Amino acid sequence: MKYLFFDIECAGVSKNKARICAFGYCLTDEKFNILEKEDILINPQSRFHLTDRRGEQGIVLPYSYGEFKNYPTFPEIFPKIKALIEDKDTLVAGHATMNDVKYLNLESGRFSLPSFTFNFTDTQFIYMNKISEFSRQFGLQAIADELNVEFTPHRAVDDAYATMRIAEAMCKELQTDFVGLLKSYEITMGRIENYEITQSTSVAYKAHLEQVTKRKEARERCRVEFHAFYDKEKRKRAKDGKLKNKRVCFSHGLVYDVEQAKTLLKGTFDQAAFYSFRAEECDVYVYTDGEIGPRIQSAQANKARLVSVEEFKKLVLEDSANNGQTNEAGTR
């Protein structure tokens, strides 16, 4: 069996468009000895409009853009790429491969070419299985640094080469070949056929998704319970108290601790405050330890007083005999 590692660069990408300008690949044998290595440059038949994955800051490709009009178009290169990538004796891999497969799909459709048909795997996904971390993605550079692989970013053939070396490093660690690496982490390969793309998956990833779903469902139950309690308790708001007419908002993390949140909400109303579900409209924001998200940032932008859960608990729950001197929520 041979291994084909590939990477694609585009002159521009949007939701329904991908203007491929480079297809880099590194073809090896089962021991990762390089058989072929090439950077196929392609006339994208469009202007270069390069952005990062959020569509903001432009990236710079290590090519002379003005030369691309002299290279073959995608339809002209299509037969070569198709032959390489659909070889039955070749295992195909990339890094964040779903993106590159989507680009191939879009360009095939753009020029009314036949769909690609092949299975593929992803070194990023393999690495995520390796470290049991599925909550975020890992860039090629980050993994290459971790595994001591050197390369030039955004040159398609160099990205493909780095992807190969990353796969090799992970195989060496487990003393297996690439097929064995996939088996070790119980990974099922992705596939493209008839313009339909199926993502690579694994036993560990499926378990992760199940846990994510369970956590979301649990959080939703907490939110529903908290809202129901709010609807019942808001009618009991005191007319006077230390937080009279102040608007209080809780961190989502606190709301998920629903029993404590209900106790503090009752204390909020006992102190004559209102409760706001919108952080950007509150006077007092009760934060949880380590909170750095948009909710607390909105409260800060509104110049709200930031109070820890423990501080707020003392403020609204301690006996009036012991807290008469406290008139305001403490600041963070």
Descriptive keywords:
single chain; 332 residues; alpha/beta; Nucleotidyltransferase, domain 5; Rossmann fold; 4-stranded parallel sheet; 12 helices; 13 strands; 42% helix; 20% strand; elongated
Walk me through the structure.
This protein is of the alpha/beta class. The chain has two domains: 2-199, Nucleotidyltransferase, domain 5, CATH 3.30.420; 209-323, Rossmann fold (3-Layer(aba) Sandwich), CATH 3.40.50. 42% of the residues lie in helices and 20% in strands. It is built from twelve helices and 13 strands. It has helices at residues 74-85, 97-110, 123-131, 140-146, 156-174, 178-184, 203-233, 252-256, 258-270, 294-301, 309-317, 320-323, and strands at 2-14, 17-28, 34-41, 90-94, 118-122, 187-188, 190-193, 196-198, 201-202, 247-250, 274-275, 284-287, 305-308. A seven-stranded mixed β-sheet has the order 3-2-1-4-5-7-8. A four-stranded parallel β-sheet has the order 11-10-12-13, with helices on both faces. Strand 7 (190-193) and strand 8 form a beta hairpin. Helix 7 (203-233) runs parallel beside helix 9 and helix 9 (258-270) crosses helix 11 (309-317). The longest helix is centred in the middle third of the chain and has 31 residues, at 203-233. Mean pLDDT is 91; it is low at 319-332.
